[in-house]
Design brief:
Elements: E1 18-22, E2 29-34, H1 44-55, H2 60-67, H3 71-84, H4 88-107, H5 113-126
Antiparallel strand pairs: 1-2
Helix pairs in contact: 2-3, 3-5, 4-5
Length: about 130
């Protein structure tokens, strides 16, 4: 029975490295210092979320329904995954653009101050 790869040492909590690969069919063994994919660090819950997100074609409303969670929860899970992939700056840029959009809507009279504050507050929560 195959077990999922663990990424950290259960003794000292440092990162583990793959050093041996073997073929179950012909028993070939290759030893070296192999690097794990950054996707190997995802938990089962995160992998499930990614699968649902992809199956729903990125439609956040559909992901909310499928998982029974709120919009801020979906955004938070997405942000966690983006962070794990090493793209924190993309989230920060998205947040800046969202805030600029709310400010522009307020300046153009499309929304009032209360609506702007509510939108900004909701966007701040979605980044948690």
């Amino acid at each position: 029975m195959a077990h999922p790869i663990i990424e950290t040492c259960p003794v000292c909590a440092h990162q583990l490295h793959v050093s041996k690969l073997s073929c179950r069919n012909c028993h070939t063994v290759i030893e070296n210092d192999f690097m794990l994919s950054k996707f190997a660090a995802f938990t089962h819950e995160q992998i499930h979320f990614i699968e649902v997100f992809l199956l729903k074609r990125g439609n956040i409303k559909e992901v909310e329904k499928a998982l029974g969670v709120s919009y801020p929860t979906v955004r938070g899970k997405l942000n966690d995954i983006v962070n794990m992939l090493g793209h924190q700056s993309a989230i920060e840029q998205d947040d800046r653009e969202n805030k600029a959009n709310v400010t522009e809507q307020l300046e153009n009279g499309e929304i009032d101050v209360e609506e702007a504050l509510a939108l900004l507050k909701n966007k701040d929560r979605s980044g948690e």
